[in-house]
Amino acid sequence: MQKMLQSSLIFAIFAPNKKVAGLVKSVYCSWHVLLACRELPLRKMNLPLSRFFHDNFTLRYNIMKKKTLSIIKDDPWLEPFEEAIVGRHNDFLRKEEELTAGGGDLVDFANAYNYYGLHHTSQGWVFREWAPNATQIFLIGDFNNWTECAPYRLKRLDCGNWEIALPERGMKHGDLFKLSIHWEGGQGERIPAYATRVVQDDNTKIFSAQVWNPAKKYEFKTKNFKPNVKPLLIYECHIGMAQNKEAVGTYEEFRTNVLPRIHADGYNAIQIMAIQEHPYYGSFGYHVSSFYAASSRFGTPEELKHLIDDAHSLGIAVIMDIVHSHAVKNEVEGLGRFDGSYDLYFYGDGKREHPAWDSLCFDYGKNEVLNFLLSNCKFWLEEYKFDGFRFDGVTSMLYYNHGLGQAFGSYDDYYNGNQDTNAITYLTLANKLIHLVNPKAITIAEEMSGMPGLARKVKDGGIGFDYRMAMGIPDYWIKTIKEQKDEYWKPTSIFWELTNRRADEKTISYAESHDQALVGDKTIIFRLIDKEMYWHMMTGDDNGVVSRGMALHKLIRLVTASTINGGYLNFMGNEWGHPEWIDFPREGNGWSHKYARRQWDLVDREDLKYQFLNNWDNDMIHLIGGVHNFQALPIRKLWDKDDDQVLAYMRGNLVFVFNFNPVKSFSDYGFLAPAGEYHGVIDSDNVRYGGYGNVDEGVKHFTQPDPLYDNAGLGWLKLYIPARSALILRLQPSKAKPAKKTATKQRKSKS
């Protein structure tokens, strides 16, 4: 081990500059040296570093045993599982100590992308790869006619690393290249694991890495951007299908055509899908092959950076849909059998293949994999200025059975030994790292099991996400629409479902996302209106099915958005009731893009009703976004009555009133509310939103006093509420009574 430490320092001396030298010391020394000795019992090692690591962690562990984590203090029902919760937290502490034992913190450790891959230096080019099972590696590409030759043969270093240094003339910007990797009994062409640019040939459909070193690199104009998360209003989007045309859209088209729409809509964040390179377009970006490459089918890295910079200039945060839960099986394009082995980045046993996704599962217990994934998080934050991540497939990561076919009905289901503690450790490390790199970064977990502590701070004993997706809400709406007649929609059930969440964890609420829009499923508007959308969406066409569908669409979105405790999400186009479904080009549909696009012309047409739903969503989002810290305001239920199907609640000075009744409109419908004067803000029956205009919005509403409730400051608020409608009213500030003049002042005025 001491010899390895010495060799690593010597290696650092020959690094092209001080930055790389420091990198080598932190990545190579602290990481690979620890890897070399990781299987030795720490108690038996007679080295100062191991004694320090063991003694330091043991001290922290003993302290942790005496100190109760906040997550347990705040939820007494977790006390029976304290040992498991503390154990997981200690796993994280132990791994953090191990990874940073060479000095520095996780930010210093997560530097793999600055060491591996292709880098342009003052002397030319340097390329490094980690492939311990390889016997020979060659760079092949445009620069050597795709042939193996001595000048492009990599040199083997310690710990499975390979390296080659080339002069400036060795390659140039735009050159395509791959690795030709040999191993015992085989050989294969591979795309470098840390490739930052991968392109597909239009004719052969073959993917290759590309040298990317433009003469003019993009310089960000917006500095130190801070996301607005009070509240966080997310517009989920996909670059390729964001255009009206039947083709793949680009970063530039999104920046110029779609970003202004989102800004006008009032959303303060976009969540972009399918950024990491993926071979199959129809995978929606979830079968990733090159984790460090922004998908080239949408444009260049500079164009993506321009998009993000423009979003920041508009006050819009940019969240990346990151996939670290699995990887594509492909061996030529991806990481499967990268160096001929099966277990380089993935499990080598029965856990290697995901039983439902036809993909490979990362081995989160390997430090090399941790370095690859943690560095990936840091790369996107620093290189592209993303403001955070929505982690896909977290449930699959948390459980050995990936949560498949399991009903999570009690706390026992979260602490029964079926949890992948290595994956939990990785997610905790990732959250800590991300917030070290950017304290204002946003992390969201797509998780459906309800694992306690997922969105609690690491120091409290949580996994560290800022938010968790409220995945039960869209399921609830689908079930309600499919199985319940309108007259059986119960406000008590709706309110409970939308507010039933852990008080100590923030959620992202949503009525529907891209999942519900995929072929085989249906969006809310399509479930409500179905085929009538093809014939009765013209203005002036008073169709009962369409009227019902539009009315419920507005109510569902408002009641979901107005009960958030963290943020709200909408998938692009759904805000105005985009028709039909999403179906990416595939053999089964003749490789058509007809359903892999957004028909913006529909909402822009003044002769169609889509504009009304868009108006509603815009005003709703602007209203909620205009109330600072709306998500943190207590939700005060004022009234619910299932017989009438009426629900009312208050947040701040806003009162939200819903009448889900399909046939009854109520006059002078009263419920107790804070005494005072109320003005109408939004009324879903307004003709601007496709309604009938039955509510006189100019009427000022005054509560009627009741001696029984005077001391409580309450009065009866009586309203006209049309069937299938929603009202939002604002309590006006009370007018202060003029102070009485004192006798002294009166005398002075007389004199």
- The percent range for strand residues is 15-25%
What percent of the residues sit in helical stretches (DSSP H or I)? 25-40%
Describe the biggest sheet? 8 strands, parallel, barrel
| Strand order in space, largest sheet | 10-11-14-17-18-19-20-21
DSSP strand tally: 30
User: How many separate helices?
Assistant: 20
Task: Give the topology.
Blueprint: H1 2-13, H2 18-36, H3 48-66, H4 70-73, H5 82-99, H6 106-109, H7 112-115, E1 117-121, E2 124-130, E3 134-141, E4 155-156, E5 161-166, E6 176-183, E7 186-190, E8 198-200, E9 207-210, E10 232-238, H8 251-265, E11 269-273, E12 276-277, E13 290-294, H9 301-313, E14 317-322, E15 327-328, E16 359-360, H10 367-383, E17 388-391, H11 394-398, H12 421-437, E18 442-445, E19 467-469, H13 472-483, H14 491-499, E20 507-509, H15 514-517, H16 524-529, H17 544-561, E21 567-571, H18 600-604, H19 610-625, E22 636-641, E23 646-651, E24 654-659, E25 666-674, E26 677-683, E27 700-702, E28 704-705, E29 714-721, E30 725-731, H20 743-750
Parallel strand pairs: 10-11, 10-21, 11-14, 14-17, 17-18, 18-19, 19-20, 20-21
Antiparallel strand pairs: 1-2, 2-5, 3-6, 4-5, 6-7, 6-9, 8-9, 12-13, 15-16, 22-23, 23-24, 24-30, 25-29, 26-27, 26-30, 28-29
Helix pairs in contact: 1-2, 3-5, 5-12, 8-9, 10-12, 17-19
